């Protein structure tokens, strides 16, 4: 296998607790409809690829008597955070590369990926690995954000950033053209990988915030695409962006709760018997 970490993850990972506020709380919410879509089985060996801080693996463990759940993530920081979240003996979190998995062929009964593939520059390699480690007849399923058309909070951030600083357009374009985020792209990748019985769908959750601080603080931390952009700004630019984002969040009303739609593309298929 090729050792090429640049092909494996473009996500900025620094702190598991920060990630929980940024994305983990929404990962937990999205995990439920995703598991409904992907299906579950009893006493299976399941791979959660790109497990992050463990949301999908923990949700799966609550639903069924899985024989073994293996969570793999590129970030050692997130894996350590996931390991500290519980002591279920069925779950094993470990550091690994989605483009170069160390498992044998046909090792798992079900292979799942939640919000990971769009951060793998060579996503086709990761899909090929998902298929390789799944046994004949196994379900392989994934879900990613509809970054361009369905992820309101993220769209608010990058559109506001570009309005203030046209130089941010390159980062906005990169964010909205990530692999596997266009309509039908996941299903096409599943067909290319030789999977069968392919079904794709759009699944939507709500992202609910208590206040602008609840919305803004995770974005201005050290993890994720927004943090990567803000690290390029000086203090004055960051302050101007925060003020503009506050105006977008308030949108004519007093500060308080807001709810934004977040849609993700999902796909599932089976390995030929």
Task: Annotate the secondary structure layout.
Blueprint: H1 16-38, E1 45-49, H2 55-63, E2 68-73, H3 76-83, E3 91-95, E4 108-114, H4 123-132, E5 134-145, H5 152-164, H6 169-176, H7 185-192, E6 196-209, H8 212-219, H9 224-230, H10 235-250, E7 258-270
Parallel strand pairs: 1-2, 1-4, 2-3, 4-5
Antiparallel strand pairs: 5-7, 6-7
Helix pairs in contact: 1-2, 5-10
What can you tell me about this protein's structure?
It is a single chain. The chain has 273 residues and is of the alpha/beta class. The chain has one domain (14-270): Vaccinia Virus protein VP39 (Rossmann fold). It is built from ten helices and seven strands. Strands 3-2-1-4-5-7-6 form a seven-stranded mixed beta sheet, with helices on both faces. It is globular and about 55 Å long.
pLDDT averaged over residues: 92
Encode the helix/strand succession as letters.
Answer: HEHEHEEHEHHHEHHHE
Range of strand content: 15-25%
CATH architecture: 3-Layer(aba) Sandwich
The helix tally amounts to 10
Please give the order of strands in the largest beta sheet.
Answer: 3-2-1-4-5-7-6
How many domains, as an integer?
A: 1
The percent range for helix content is 40-55%
Low-confidence stretches: 1-6
CATH class: Alpha Beta
Strand count, sense and barrel status of the largest sheet are: 7 strands, mixed
The fourth-level CATH homologous superfamily is: Vaccinia Virus protein VP39
**Which secondary-structure class do the elements indicate?**
alpha/beta
Distance between the termini: 25 Å
């Amino acid at each position: 296998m090729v050792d090429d970490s640049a092909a494996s993850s473009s996500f900025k990972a620094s702190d598991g607790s920060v990630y929980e506020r940024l994305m983990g709380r929404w990962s937990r919410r999205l995990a439920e409809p995703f598991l409904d879509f992907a299906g579950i089985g009893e006493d299976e060996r399941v791979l959660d690829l790109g497990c992050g801080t463990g949301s999908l693996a923990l949700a799966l463990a609550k639903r069924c008597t899985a024989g073994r759940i293996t969570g793999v993530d590129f970030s050692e920081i997130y894996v350590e955070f996931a390991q500290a979240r519980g002591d279920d003996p069925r779950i094993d979190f470990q550091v690994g590369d989605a483009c170069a998995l160390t498992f044998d062929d046909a090792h798992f009964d079900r292979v799942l990926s939640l919000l990971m593939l769009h951060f793998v520059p060579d996503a086709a390699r990761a899909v090929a690995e998902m298929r390789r480690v799944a046994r004949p007849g196994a379900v392989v399923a994934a879900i990613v954000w509809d970054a361009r058309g369905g992820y309101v909070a993220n769209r608010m951030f990058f559109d506001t950033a570009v309005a203030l600083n046209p130089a941010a357009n390159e980062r906005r374009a990169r964010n909205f053209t990530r692999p596997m985020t266009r309509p039908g792209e996941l299903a096409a990748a599943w067909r290319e990988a030789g999977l069968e019985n392919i079904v794709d769908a759009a699944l939507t959750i709500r992202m609910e915030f208590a206040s602008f601080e609840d919305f803004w603080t995770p974005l201005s931390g050290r993890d994720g695409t927004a943090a990567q952009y803000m690290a390029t700004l000086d203090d004055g630019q960051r302050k101007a962006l925060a003020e503009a984002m506050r105006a977008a969040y308030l949108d004519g009303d007093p500060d308080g709760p807001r709810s934004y739609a977040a849609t993700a593309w999902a796909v599932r298929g089976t390995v030929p018997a």
